[in-house]
Design brief:
- Strands 1-2-3 form a 3-stranded antiparallel sheet, with no helix packed on it.
- The protein is α+β, with helices and mostly antiparallel strands.
- A hairpin with a 5-residue loop joins strand 1 and strand 2.
- It is elongated, with a radius of gyration of 31 Å.
- Helices cover 35% and strands 19% of the residues.
Length: 141
């Protein structure tokens, strides 16, 4: 058996696309009309030492757990969370909860009904809730 044609084709592919592996090269050869057996092409591929090195997985550095920072006074840090649920009738509703991180007090709960509970509150309502005047209102009382 003469493998010179296979070697020639693999060498040209390797020069043109050096990052291609065996499967991609073999698929390209098949599309070009060559009907060589994959075992034969693999044998020639390994004889030519075209095998690509498998990259090892990158190790993540060891985690250094640190305690969470807790706010020292009320109204220093707020948490916002969207929640959704549905009524017995099947109608969906959603809530936007604003919570003080210091004492876990619910400062504001905005409730809205909708057909799809997966969408957040409309943009205008969300901007109204995050506006400075609204924050001052919550902070003062």
């Amino acid at each position: 058996m003469d493998d010179e044609e296979i070697k020639k084709q693999l060498k040209t592919l390797e020069k043109r696309w050096p990052r291609w592996g065996f499967r991609k090269m073999f698929g390209w050869l098949r599309k070009q009309g060559y009907c060589w057996n994959h075992k034969r092409v693999r044998r020639v591929y390994t004889e030519m030492a075209l095998n690509m090195r498998k990259k090892p997985k990158k190790r993540l550095p060891a985690r250094q757990p640190r305690p969470l920072k807790q706010p020292a006074i009320p109204n220093q840090c707020w948490l916002m969370d969207f929640m959704s649920d549905s009524l017995v009738s099947g109608r969906a509703f959603r809530t936007l909860n604003v919570i003080d991180d210091f004492n876990r007090e619910a400062l504001w709960i905005e409730v809205d009904t909708c057909y799809l509970a997966t969408y957040p509150l409309p943009g205008t309502d969300f901007h109204r809730l995050t506006d400075d005047s609204f924050q001052n209102t919550l902070a003062n009382g």
